[in-house]
Amino acid sequence: MAANWAERISAFSRSPSRFLSGTTAEDFLAELLRELRDDRASFGAKVLLLSPLCEHPSLLCPSAAVGEETAMELMSVLAQCPPKSVQFRCQLLVALTAVLVCASCVATRSRASQDFLDLLLQLVQDTGDLRGDDGLRSPRAAACDCLRELEACSPGLLAQRLELLGGLRQRETSRLHQAYAGLHALVLRNAVYRLARDTGAGGEQLKALLGGNAWVAWEAELDSGPVDDGDCSAALSSLALGPMGTVPTLQTGPDCKELRSVLSSLLEESYLLTPLCQAALLHRLTEVVAMVPGVPPAVFRAQLLRLLGTSEVCLLHATLLLKCAFTDSLFSAEDEAFLLQRLVVLAQHPLLSAPEKLFHVDCLLHFPENRPIGCGADGDEAPPVLLTPRLASALAPTVFDDGATGLARLNLLSLVYLEEAEGGEGEESRGLAYLYEHVGTLLRVVASGGGRELVVTAFRAVFLFLFYFCHVERYCRSLTEELCQLYLRHAHLAPHAINLADRVQEKLAESDWAVGFLRALQGVITMAPPTSLTWRGLGYHLKALARVAEEGAITQHRTVRFLSGVIAAPPRSPCAGGAWRLGNGLLAVCRRLLVHPGLDSLFIPLADVLQHLSRCYGDTDIQDHARLYYTLLTTLSREKLAGVLAADGGRRVKKRSLSCIVGESEGLASALTVHRTEKSLIGLTEVRSAPPAAEAGELRQSGTFPTEARAALEEYRAQFDDPGFASQVAIDYRLTHIDGDDDPRFDQLFSIRLHFGLTDAHYEELADVSVPRLLRGRAAAEVTLRLKPRRPRPTTLHASAIFTAEDGLSWFTVLPQVHVAFQQAFAPLPAPRAWGRGGGPVLFEALWGEMSAEDQEDCATSLFCCQAKEGPLSALVAEHFLPFLVSDRSDEDEFKVLIFLPPRAHVLLRIRPGEPAQFHIATDDWRLLSHLNSYLLTITSSRGDAPP
Amino acid sequence: MSVRALWIISHEKGEHVSMRFTRRFATVEHRAKSLAGSSYVAVPEDYSVLQLLLAELGLSDSDKCYVALRDDCLHRQRSPAVELCVDGPGKGILWPVLAISQGPLTLACLPIVDAPAEPRPPLASLLSVSQGLTLLAGLQTFLLGSGGKPDNEGLASRLAMLPSLLLQVCPLGTPLDVPISGAPATSAVPTPAGSQKQPFWKTGLHRGRAVVNVALKETVRSMQYGKRSRQDLWDVYGTVTCKCEVEGVLPNVTVTLTLPPNGSPLQDILVHPCVTSLDSSILTASSVDNCDGSAFSGPYKFPFSPPLEPFRLCSYTSPVPVPPILGSYQLREEGNQLCVSVTLKLHESVKNCFEYCEAHMPFFNRDQMGVVEVKVSSGQMDVSKEKNLVVWGLGQKFPKSREVSMEGKISFPGPTPGPTDPICTELTAYIKLYFKVPDMTLSGCCVDQHSVQVYSSAKPRIITSRELQSKEYFIWNSSGTAPVSSGQMML
Questions:
Q1: Disulfide-capable partner of A397 in A409, A449, A713, A832 (CB 3.0 to 4.6 Å)?
Q2: What compartments host this protein (chain B) (predicted)?
């Protein structure tokens, strides 16, 4: 049981949506609650059961009503829980908080939430609980935390209890004091916020609030029901945003004795808290003082020295936020300089972790200056004025830095040097030179075989450098050279180089560095000796050249020359598949050249390249596409060519024309993928066409034929020397949409290719059948299946289709199976045409005689009888055997039927009326008898005649 | 000041990835929702978080050399916080996701943004970010120990302890504390009720004889190029670790650091939060600022009230004028072998009494070593089993001259190629020194046993120690290209 629960709980938390698809939230919740009430389950196991309620309460309690009910249940579980299972009780309080908050019960001050609040308040006042120090968490501390969370989620909830909470905090001497302090500070902050926002509130109200008389003035307002969302979110937001932030203020006058004493007592004892709680407390108090101008920020001064020397990242951060809120009213210029130095030191301190150092670099970029110049929009990175190049040089990036650190430092120093460069010439060049050297070193490390991470870092560094210094031509030029040299050695960096060019172009619209870089790249690729080309390298070169060809400003003669050279002497192919890929690479370049503004001057060489490809390339697909391009190039005017190709020449994925698929095959995965339909869309139904009687009728009534049986047989059999003779059965089908599928995407299907698969070995493989289109609501498409039997037997065929839908995507769908009945393999006698109708009876007799002979292997005769009157019998013959009838229809004494079953089998019937009617059967393949029997049974019984 | 969710992932270089632990804080999520309003982006389920996080940290698709999502040069990987682009129904950007990695473990959390979401506030304005970082670092230390990496079983058992641990340190998404590292004093007892308030970070009270242990450790780093064009660099930082077993709820202890008469002032002093007060002059000296001669040079008094477990009382850096060991390394190619010439000089101020001293001379991007014809003036020479590293063991003492040298030739005919390194190509090579000197500091800083004051009834036992050790102590081949832009270290 327990193990099962552990598994289920972990399945739930791994993916709640998947878990709940197998059950309902309601059921799962009910099960959880039942198990929680079960006395047999251990409390250790029950703690686990609470985790879904703690982590995903809104999934399990989607409405306030369910939340309310669940909370009631949980509270009764809590009431029955023995005091010694401390951990379970604590976790239960946490779960209750989560449920009540997330089901909006707290916001609406529901009954359960009021009960829970009372319970918590009772717990926090229960000082008899001394279990707090035995390593486990005390329910009292947990209750404090829950109250704090409730207050955090519904600011103002506990405003009336401010005095009570303050008193509890002051009296508490155990470690739990921390929990009370956190709770007290938050409630104070929210209460002051409420007051400050209320126009007209002042010192008197504040005094009343702190004195515990709050409800006199406030009750009506605070209990007036749920606060609206906007209000709540404003109350939740941090208020230490500095002079630019909007902070509501409470006008109290200079005398705020009560508040001051509360603040200083909280601050004095802050030393007793963990750094995390100290930081949170400081932040809360910062907000309070920011709202009450009557309290000078100097209340914090006593703590400042301790904070400035701290090694804790969160305490220093709280100090920075303090500075952000009070600037020079708390921090002198020396303090500011000191704090800045501290940040520089901490941003590279060997004892700090990499993320902490990065955080300090970030703090430097958003340093809260006492006198900020300009009011730069939030989020803008700008180093403070005091961060001089000298000071910042301690943060110079080195090759030994990890990727993120190196980039952060490069970014910071770039900003510092940029600032300085704006200020005036001089020193600047040295710092910039250093940064350039750094970027160059990174590139050289990459050149010596740096791993993937180094490559990415180096390209990001190049981008950063260009981003800040693209105006310094000297460096940009040599950067281009360095990158080209690097590319020559490592062509696999092509995607990085292209990405760099793209981003620079995107972010630095005014700079033409990217074009220059691409031009240089074209240069090094096309100038490289062809002998140095490798198969893979060529692929990357083509990628790069394709990107170069997108630039109208770059002449493309070299590119075309390069292509010609490659085609003339391609590197040796490692595999046939590579040829297709390489061909596509070539075509991708050609495609972009086709829309290049300088096409006119490229016309002839490009046409030569395309023509050469279309004639000589080793891959038919590529040949075809090259031919298409060639045709487009030579027949369309430039405007039209641009119209055909340009629409999707860029990065946009448009209608997927064939040419587009080829040209962009590197990106258009979806166009190149065959999608699969979920269910069958189309199906084949047999056409009950008139039997091929007409064909028989075409035969001349009279003709010349051998009258002698042996000669007739010989002449007849001689025809089969031709291996393809009469070996096929053609069956007609109709291809239609299957009813019930109305997906409009598939209303119009094009280029349908039907594929059939065999289920046995009786037939030869079938050729695919193409149907040009199938439109819903229009005439069905005729499909003729040409079956080539090895043995004429009934069979079943698998059928599937690939088609193009209106959206231009290719689809694969499975059709319902196609059943081929025994009689569908029947064919009329392939007697020589010259014989006319008269040859049939002769051949019939000749075959009959042969098959009735004793010694014939595989031959057999049989008899089938059934009840049939004379009239219905002739109708039956007319209905089923007319095309195969060789005797005269008027001769009702005996119908002679000669059925040919490709490739070589025959079934001969002499049907004689009588009681019962007799079907004398002769065949040269006895294996057919069973099929024939069931066929005859079907046709005779369907006429209401009982079989014998 | 809270985190919305916490994830712990283990992986081996991007492979065998698994989510080892996750915790969502529903009430914080509720707050995040009402704070962000219409721009709220819900935290997706674990498997998508995992995928997105790995891609963002550059750990996904390690076999492909370029993946647009991962390798775009516009990516802001330089920030401690990453953003996850959530796709699908709850589309949007999840920010700021903090992640820290060590060895096989990556810990991540999503702090709440308690400021208007648009425009995106700077990280520095969100207190929850530093809180999140502190929480992650604390959990990392708890799971992996400080520095060491535990075996899989150890890790699994610690992960299993996390739920109950989190109930203590972060029950509702607001981090209250970090797991205590190091064992608390053995004889801790619960506190009786008293008038003195007990600090939260003091888990109990010590009973018994007072013992104060103060250990001062200095670490020296160096980059020596042996070139005129490049300045040699070195720096020294010290840490003072204490373990105090003292009776009382808030006992007062004072540790004083003193410098020799002409010692350079200690810089960049950082103190533990249990230090009760500080003289502002202690903090003024900084390594990144011009040091004026009039700077305060001690004694440095640190009054504090200790927690039960060992803790780092303070750390400092020191502007030592010379490196303890000055080296010169010359490596030249001659035919198909390398000529090596190394000298190491021990500075006279350094006590010639090592716990260990070794010089490691690795060779990258070459085949395995063959014959090593190298003579050393002192100590002994070893070649590693893999035949790509020469280890020169200098033992406990330099000779009287305080100078040792190595000369010789090494050839690389080995059948298999040795390790590669993108920085150490051709003649760019280094020697790395590993040494430890007990009972000395470079700065001269010391803790006098008699200067440790404990204000308690019983006379305490006081133990002090100091040592110097090296870290990242490199001597580069002066006849090869030094890896430039190695920048300034802390100076």
A1: A409
A2: Cytoplasm, Cytosol; Late endosome membrane; Lysosome membrane
